[in-house]
Design a protein that fits this description.
heterodimer; A: alpha+beta; Multidrug efflux transporter AcrB transmembrane fold; Hypothetical Protein Ta0175, Chain: A, domain 2; Gyrase A, domain 2; 4-stranded antiparallel β-sheet; 19 strands; B: alpha+beta; Alpha-Beta Plaits; 2 domains; two-stranded parallel ribbon; 64% helix; elongated
């Protein structure tokens, strides 16, 4: 255990030097080309920033799809001259009573025509159930899954493009599970604007305000943005936001307010021209997410395909609206289900406090070890110091994120790394009491302690692994530092420390030694 | 066998006293956990935490009464670190994008001061449920894996002894959090798992020595053998605990407000873990009556 071949010594020194090289960029930025440049990645809790978890709410989508199906179904039933009674569409089911003689025809309709895009059993869009003379139809699970998946993919793309437009520094935007999107925005001070932009569905429609004598079922009551006014807005759309090709914030000098100018594609422009030409004098409501933004009177036919949305916006509101309109509407509304934001000043404070407690903890430990083991304590302390450097350099190399609990993990590792030294030295003390040959006593000590050392550290490693796989965010950071720390401390105490000790006792051959 | 240390403390002979003590502590902990429960943080209960910094000193009551006007459910406000920083814990959570900014605007208007929201954490009900489940899973899985490892490496008596000691530590830690009323959040789960690892580590070192001594000598009576093993490893046990505690105390005092609960849990855990390795885990080997005829050939030659 005390013999080190030249190759071994060389490898150990090589590892330590490599560790120091990768550690250095964390202290200062250098221009030397042979030095690595990578610095340790700080978690959002240390560098400040925002963590947002969004959930796509697919329920309204299911409702929309079911409504569309119900509309189609009614049309088909009428076309096929099949009679039905008490036809009803709720949020999740379509139901009606049928004449049992027609059962075959209806089933044929449900199974074969284009109500289902595919008649393959596993890909069916509708499920139905017949109870006596009542048929109950709902969206199939497979179809719902498909809807969810599409909504998720679209949402992810739209959210990405919206956040890109804001020019945020290195955002992370990834899907998590079936209907969640995780967003990490490092360095952002106030996520208010981002939250507004991703929280807006931006479903834009143009609809005329209903006449006073319009049929009750043909319009709905919608409020304005400030919820002060209510308009009767036709259910029939003139145009929806899909036909927008561009939207830019602008300024209306006439009214001294910010506006959003938009351009329509050729289909949209034609439709818009037609609708405005035939409805001069009427009020056209511009509706975003079921709120009337403005309802200007149509004075002329608009044939250019260019338009303007004014609604007493602030400059920022106009900017935001332009961004969300350009990116297109989210397929379904999203809600924030988890948010963790740390301001940059708090982050810096946490780093400072973390470093102060690390230094103090380290000094206390070093003094205590030195007091207990003197010269051997010094060896332990040197390996402890190198352990710290190796730990940080490995964290830098594997691009682990250093979080506040992670710093605590490092300090804890400092405390626990000592354990290996203590185990070894205490064991050697015991061996020395039984064995007069110091070399043999040391050798035995190292040999006998190895199993204990492994058993003890593997149990802690297990805890760290479980934390890593089950924990989230900061906890993961803690687990990574703890696990890495255990491995580096085994190396520094059992290999590096042993090398120091072996050099020392060989140089003192024959002399009295005391631990 | 010779004991090179002066210590020959009869830990094992006294074990019934310590079992009584532990039993009382466990009962008190369980009673508190059931009657008072844990002071669950927003990670497990859902809600919103805002750390706010003011330009001038205010009282927590003033901030609280201002927040109460906003209809945010149950509200707690406490000083956090220096006297211009406060932590508001709100029962309400919301998926709306302007939830936080509305609170800020209303509060600034009402108190007529500009406020720096240094930290905001909002956890919705779904997430808190998931985090709770994940936390429970984490502790259980870690326990099972460690026990499996001990069972592979040692006899079943050791494995059982280790689990009893670990449960002892976990219950006492949870009980302490319940009695003191410290907030129990995600990082405390991490702390509990670390304690589990640490206490296991401690127990393994003593068990290793017991096993080694069992192989060396099968004539000495089991009580003395275990007692000898505990005494032999005692210097290591104490020194390691002291160094770990030194490092942890540094975090507790200098690591800032956010790490205080976390480091407290670890400090308490190290103390309890050390105690349980000596007074709970070791006597259990005696109680479970581990086998004596170890057939392995032991090489005693230098």
């Amino acid at each position: 255990m005390l013999h080190f071949s030249k190759l071994k010594i060389f490898s150990i020194i090589f590892v330590v030097i490599l560790g120091i090289l990768f550690f250095l960029p964390n202290l200062f930025t250098s221009n030397l080309s042979f030095l690595p440049k990578k610095k340790i990645v700080l978690g959002l809790d240390l560098q400040g920033g925002s963590y947002l978890l969004l959930e796509v709410n697919s329920k309204p989508l299911f409702k929309d799809k079911l409504e569309a199906k119900s509309f189609e179904l009614k049309k088909k039933l009428r076309m096929e001259r099949i009679s039905y009674e008490s036809f009803e569409t709720t949020e999740s089911i379509i139901s009606f009573r049928l004449n049992l003689d027609n059962k075959e025809n209806i089933l044929k309709l449900l199974n074969e025509n284009n109500l289902n895009e595919s008649i393959d059993e596993t890909n069916k869009e509708l499920d139905y159930q017949i109870l006596n003379d009542k048929i109950i139809i709902n969206l199939s699970e497979a179809y719902k899954k498909r809807i969810k998946k599409n909504a998720m993919e679209q949402s992810l793309e739209i959210i990405r493009s919206r956040i890109d437009e804001l020019g945020t520094r290195e955002p992370t935007i990834i899907a998590q599970g079936e209907q969640r999107i995780l967003i990490e925005l490092p360095g952002i001070k106030n996520p208010k604007r981002i939250k507004e932009i991703i929280g807006t569905t931006a479903k834009l429609t143009f609809r005329f305000i209903a006449d006073n004598n319009a049929k009750k079922t043909s319009y709905e009551k919608l409020q304005t943005k400030n919820e002060l006014e209510t308009y009767n807005v036709q259910k029939k759309l003139v145009l929806s936001g899909e036909h927008l090709t561009d939207a830019q914030p602008g300024f209306d000098n006439l009214n001294n307010s910010s506006v959003v100018n938009f351009k329509l594609d050729s289909f949209g422009a034609k439709k818009f021209a037609y609708a405005t030409k035939n409805n001069i004098g009427k009020r056209l409501a511009i509706i975003i997410d079921n709120k009337v933004v403005s309802a200007p009177v149509v004075r002329d036919a608009i044939t250019t395909g260019n338009g303007q949305i004014s609604g007493s916006f602030s400059v920022e509101e106009a900017n935001n609206l332009a961004i969300v309109l350009r990116s297109g509407a989210l397929p379904a509304p999203m809600s924030i289900i988890e948010e963790r934001t740390v301001g940059p000043d708090l982050g810096q404070e946490s780093i400072d406090k973390g470093i102060v407690s690390l230094v103090i903890g380290f000094i206390l430990v070093i003094l205590y070890i030195f007091y207990n083991y003197r010269i051997f304590g010094l060896f332990a302390n040197i390996s402890l110091f190198i352990n710290l450097i190796l730990l940080i350099s490995i964290l830098t190399i594997i691009e682990a994120t250093l979080t506040l609990p992670g710093i605590a993990g490092i300090i804890l590792t400092v405390g626990m790394a000592v354990d290996a030294n203590v185990l070894i030295y205490e064991r050697i003390k015991e061996e020395m009491a039984m064995e007069s040959n110091i070399l043999i006593a040391f050798d035995n000590g190292y040999k006998k302690v190895l199993t204990t050392l492994l058993d003890a550290n593997i149990t802690t490693l297990i805890a760290a692994f479980v934390l890593y796989f089950i924990g989230s965010g900061p906890i993961k950071g803690f687990a990574v530092t703890l696990a890495t720390g255990i491995i580096t401390s085994l190396f520094t105490t059992f290999v590096l420390g042993r090398m120091f000790v072996s050099f020392y006792i060989k140089s003192k051959k024959g002399q009295e030694l005391k631990i | 066998m010779i004991n090179i240390y002066k210590t020959n403390i009869p830990f094992i002979k006294q074990y019934k006293k310590f079992y009584c003590l532990s039993l009382i502590l466990i009962l008190v902990s369980i009673f508190s956990l059931f009657s008072k429960g844990l002071n669950l943080g927003i990670d497990f209960k859902g809600g919103t935490i805002i750390e706010m910094q003011f330009n001038e000193s205010l009282t927590s009551d003033k901030i609280r009464s201002s927040l109460l006007k906003q209809n945010l459910g149950d509200i707690k406000v406490k000083e956090f670190g220096n006297n211009k920083t406060y932590l508001a814990i709100l029962e309400k959570k919301s998926g709306k994008s302007n939830f936080i900014s509305n609170i800020k605007t209303s509060l600034e208007k009402d108190l007529n001061e500009s406020i720096n929201f240094r930290r905001v954490e909002m956890v919705g009900p779904k997430i808190s449920k998931e985090l709770t489940e994940a936390g429970i899973y984490a502790v259980c899985i870690a326990l099972i894996l460690m026990l499996f490892y001990i069972w592979l490496r040692f006899e079943w008596q050791f494995s059982l002894g280790a689990i009893v000691a670990l449960l002892h530590d976990v219950i006492l830690t949870l009980g302490t959090f319940s009695i003191i009323g410290f907030e129990f959040n995600l990082s405390i789960i991490a702390a509990v798992l670390t304690i589990v690892g640490y206490s296991m580590n401690d127990t393994v070192v003593i068990y290793d020595r017991i096993r080694e001594n069992l192989k060396k000598d099968d004539t000495i009576n089991l009580t003395d053998l275990i007692n000898l093993s505990v005494n032999e490893t005692l210097p290591r046990t104490l020194k390691t605990s002291i160094t770990t505690l030194l490092a942890l105390t540094a975090i507790y005092f200098f690591g800032g407000e956010i790490l205080r609960g976390f480091s407290f849990a670890l400090i308490w855990g190290v103390i309890v873990g050390t105690y349980s390795s000596i007074f709970i885990a070791s006597p259990l080997i005696l109680i479970f009556n581990v086998k004596r005829n170890w057939d392995e050939v032991v090489d005693n030659s230098p």
